[in-house]
């Protein structure tokens, strides 16, 4: 059952995208309560505030029966500024809902990292990368210490200077070791890139606690089936199209079920050159499995959409992080509409109709395939 772009008309798309977190959240909640299979909404209020001084939330919407045995968990904005695409996909699914099958539910988590979403950052209020945060050992790659000086400069550095030092480091240590030292996650440089934090952040903690409480009454739920889909941008092979990444190598049956977008994992040719630890989806799956005692392992998918070439992604992350921390060191409030911040938003977003059309179709198609998967998951292990 492959995921093909042609399965839905492009006339359905584009209108689901919003300009910012506030507008997207309002639209999503207004549409969700009107959705025929809406059950309930719960908001988790964060301590962090937006640039407007207003509250930020993680919103959880339950679609379908609350006692369903087959449950899809769908996440957006785990990496903050990447949330524009994932939120648009969720908007399409509540505004133009796809029917759920019998005894099946979808739990949508809108704005996992709403701070990063509204501030145009990939990280949370404590500079923590949510997908590096839920790791027990919290060990930093030894090589990271040797590159932090130019990855997180203490004074203004030009892009040319950065590229020169980055190039020298890759010549000395190799490209893959440098990328791994950066993106695997580090835990000793709080202002550095891909910082995983010393403790679990408030947002991830709220989400983990909510799901633990929600499924506490489903203990001994050995027949429960779950699938987690987490939408990201910036790593796909083609703008507007996705690669389905998994923390484990899926079985041939699962790859065949989800189609060509997952072939890279089967062939061990992923778009990623690193293997980060501390993923939210992995920790969430572990928590649910422990609480419910479900016997079928929970499958996790990162739906990763391409936007711009990877070197532009790295430069954008570096520039935004540098300007953010230079402002803080100067006792200034960072500007979420600075050139570096808006450039990062552009890098991780899809702002043209063609790529938006493709992405919405792919998200809707994966949603349908995920619902189908839950019906037969026990036969695909």
Structure at a glance:
The chain contains 13 helices and 7 strands. By secondary structure, the protein is an alpha/beta fold.
Verbal overview:
A seven-stranded mixed beta sheet has the order 1-2-4-3-5-7-6, sandwiched between helices. Helix 2 links the parallel strand 3 (70-75) and strand 4. It starts with 20 loop residues before the first helix and ends in a 5-residue tail after the last helix. The longest helix is centred in the C-terminal third of the chain and has 24 residues, at 353-376. Helix 2 (83-95) crosses helix 13, helix 5 packs across helix 6 (175-183) and helix 11 runs antiparallel to helix 12 (339-348). It is of the alpha/beta class and 381 residues long. It has one domain (5-142, 195-308, 349-379): Aminopeptidase. The chain contains 13 helices and seven strands.
List the helices and strands and how they pair.
Elements: H1 21-32, E1 38-49, E2 55-63, E3 70-75, H2 83-95, E4 104-110, H3 114-119, H4 144-151, H5 159-173, H6 175-183, H7 202-214, E5 225-233, E6 242-245, H8 252-258, H9 263-266, H10 280-292, E7 299-305, H11 310-329, H12 339-348, H13 353-376
Parallel strand pairs: 3-4, 3-5, 5-7
Antiparallel strand pairs: 1-2, 2-4, 6-7
Number of domains: 1
Order of helices and strands: HEEEHEHHHHHEEHHHEHHH
Please name the CATH architecture: 3-Layer(aba) Sandwich
- The percent range for helix content is 40-55%
The radius of gyration over CA amounts to 20 Å
Strand order, sheet with most strands: 1-2-4-3-5-7-6
